[in-house]
Amino acid sequence: MIIIGIIILVIAFLYIILSVTVFKEYNEVEANYETLIKVLETRDLLLMRVLPEIKSNKTKEQITNLVSNRLNAKKISADELILRDVELNKKLKVVYDELNESKNPIVREEFRKIVHLEKNLKQIRRNYNEAVEKYNAKFSKNPKLYLKRLHMKPLNTYDFK
Questions:
Q1: What would the pLDDT profile of 6-46 be if each residue is shown by its tens digit?
Q2: Which is nearest to 152 in space by CA: 17, 22, 12?
Q3: Is residue 157 a part of any domain in this protein?
Q4: Sign of CA dihedral 118, 121, 125, 126
Q5: Is residue 160 classed as helix, strand or coil in its secondary structure?
Q6: Does residue 61 surpass a pLDDT of 80?
Q7: How many CB atoms lie within 10 A of CB 93?
Q8: How much is the pTM?
Q9: Share above pLDDT 70 across residues of the chain, in percent, rounded to a whole number
Q10: Any residues with CB less than 8 A from the CB of 37 and at least 6 apart, and which?
Q11: Is residue 114, in this structure, part of any structural domain at all?
């Protein structure tokens, strides 16, 4: 019994050491990613609520498809989610310009919430990029450990202007 207890204690100690040394940056990336997803989902929900106000059916269809693609990408990978979010973000300027001109008070309020979320998203994306850069820097120092032993790979960052 004592030997089993010692083995469990050693395994727990090794796990703590690995968490602090190897997984710290990855856990930070994961936390930022989860925050990013929650805010994007909230923004997308608000977008879908104001979409009927958009005059162009083509724009409505594009935004609906891009939101749908981004939601499906969430199930695929972080890198794919980022690519699809960048694509969606490029199309939103037209929508935001049109929403900004709306006379409907409900739409104006929803748009105000979307603008607030977009401001938050800028910082969240920056935080995500910083966490990924730290992770990738650590990854580049020990690529064999990450690739072979832990089956991890470098991650992409947001490329926003």
A1: 999 899 888 788 767 667 888 898 899 999 989 999 999 99
A2: 22
A3: no
A4: positive
A5: coil
A6: yes
A7: 9
A8: 0.78
A9: 89
A10: 74, 81
A11: yes
Domain span at residue 63 reads 32-141
Tell me whether residue 10 is in a domain.
no
Radius of gyration of the chain (CA): 21
Report how many domains make up the chain: 1
Cα dihedral sign, 136-137-142-144: positive
Contact by Cβ (8 Å): 64, 48: yes
Residue with tokens 């006379």: 103
In one-letter notation, the amino acid at residue 50 is V
Q: Which two tokens stand for residue 161?
A: 């202007």
For residue 119, the model assigns a pLDDT of 93
Which range has the top average pLDDT, 23-37, 48-62, 110-124? 110-124
| Sign of the Cα pseudo-torsion (15, 18, 20, 25, in order) | negative
Is residue 22 one of the residues assigned to a domain?
A: no
